[in-house]
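Z., the sequence and structure:
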Amino acid sequence: MSKVHLSVLALAGLLAFAPAAHAQMSRPYIGFVYPAGGQRGTTFRIELGGQGLDDVDRAVVTGAGVSAKVIAYHRKLNPQENQLLREQLRDLRRAAHGSAIASLVTSGPAMMASGDAMMASAAAPAGATATGKDPAAQLVARIEKRLAEYVQRPESMSISNLVVVEVTMAGSAKPGPREIRLVTPHGVSNPLVFHVGQVPEVSRKPMITSEYEVLGKEELALRHRPDTEVEDVVSIPCTANGQMASGEVNRYRFQAHKGQRLVISADARQLIPYMADAVPGWFQAVLALYDAQGKEVAYDDDYRFKPDPTIFYQVPKDGQYVLAIYDAIYRGREDFVYRVTIGEMPFVTSIFPLGGRAGGPPPPIRMKGWNLEKAVLTPPPGDAKPGIYWLAARSRGLLSNRVPFVVDTLPECLEQEPNNDPAHAQKVQLPIVVNGHIDRPDDWDVFQFTGRGGETIVAEVAARRLDSPLDSVLKLTDASGKLLALNDDHEDVETGLNTHEADSYLSVKLPADGTYYVHLGDTARQGGEEYAYRLRLSAPRPDFALRVVPSSITFRSKGYSNVTVYAIRKDGFSGPIKLDLKDPPPGFTSYPIWLSPGQIVARLGVKTDLVDTKLPVTLAIEGSAKIGGRDVAHDAVPAEDKMQAFLWRHLVPAKELKAMVVDPSYESPKKRAAHLLPPPAAPVKATTVASANSAAAKPKFSKKQVAGRLRQLELLLEEGLLTDAFYKEKVAECEAAQ
């Protein structure tokens, strides 16, 4: 399995300690969002699990047409808070059987202050409301739900706090992946993938926090669901959303008709690319399709080299079919989130060529796939700058999956068969980018060029990075057939989502003037029309790319912070690189620094003279260098430093670098406080007990213990889970216990 190449970038120690290096303040963290998207033109609720989310007050989504607002925050309760809620629930139930309910609920409207009604509806399943109930009944229902969800030992503490968010997607919102973040008065979180869908969606009930599985007693932590929740009946096309619990299989039954060309594609690993505490480091989803008789008719556990599976199935006859989805080794937890789309969706399996030349007319792009009748694939504009662009085909009003297309500046040509051996090699003049295919299994493409002794030649394949299934291997031989260089895999830290970096790279100093041959094949001896590649043959093109970690930073008022910047040096470039903020927004400045020759990592300091920012602001970092007498500048791509399966680390790109300035003296307003009422007619129970006991018999608690108890009561009161009377009773107990 691929990892960051230690010998090239020496990132082992640097990445391992990167969190400490760029830690400014403890930033909010989200580990999952469920459902991870919804249909445009709808409003729906989602849950996000994480930590450090106290006082969360907003959610932000990249792109236009999507808005989100925070409805509720459910932090993880501790055992003492759990017991307090049980006592409150007991008192409410007792009062419900008598006539004293009004004395416990001091005033319906007052008790429901600060959004209790909204929280009550947030606690209900999607589509349900709590209207028509009196405040006491709503409080009972809310406490019962919180108690039912209580888990003393969560499987993952880092995702045990939940935020409920309401999302509204405009009908005009562009389909595809976005990023969602949570914002608190203390900072802005990491991003997670969030989709704008284009077909109707169904979502299973959100999971309750998973319990820790004890070795040998795993069955005690399994989720036991009623049979009615094991299989859902859906109408296609649709997108089904779910969370996979340990040991589960989720099933979807639907009606299909003869001749339908179904594409069933799952997003799982694509939603949460890396899990630090799971092997292989992501949710490894499996799809299986069954007919009405229970016979398996299709199966997939990945799509080519991508872990997320896709099934292509032409329906042979009318009838019911059942789709099953599960984890390959039956793991599960609330962050094992998936989206699976079923229907006659357009799906591009390959394009050719994989790229084109900047500044010229875009090449005609051939595409293959499913449900692409009269589909249109729009290439990048003619003035597109070098880089990778993501294209989607439009067919019958629906957009397909996205495929990468690269724009470069070198001359281009097409591979010409036959060119399977040196005797039939295709002659090329350097520099050149060759667009070709490994047409069939065990095929080799051979290219001939004339070189001079002492000059350095680079041969580089771009295939796997452009979604081609080709696992390339490169050889360089001289005219006599002598092998001069060989490469199978060359790691590219830029591709933070690729764990099998299968593209090849050679940089060779030619020994003498003469004829040379570059041989390109597939390591597994596979081939076909979809096994496309781009082969660059040229002198070295020294350059660099930048990644900045993390993708969100927090400043104290008029304070200083820093980020870690990684330089990915290309084709031997070792010169100095200047790092600085690019077009900073008002109130932000940086201390420019230089990466010395050969240096690959540095910390860039940023300062603000602002007291606070109400909303996150976007920053940009630029690196500049002198290369071959030219001034070259590149923007640093924001990224998250992610660990995969206890060991490997990856720089996962994000769309934006977000920053917030927080005032350390700021205190969030109380969501709800106990009302200042005259003393109750009857003495409070705790006070009566305390006065009856002698001072010697009174329990002793430290000030710290009492302060902790008072804080628990205050938090439960703010969350709207306690009545005023119960709160005052327990506060009195605390005062008596000191």
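The CA atoms of residues 87 and 726 lie 9 Å apart. Residues 79-150+670-737 form one domain.

Let me know what you think.
H.
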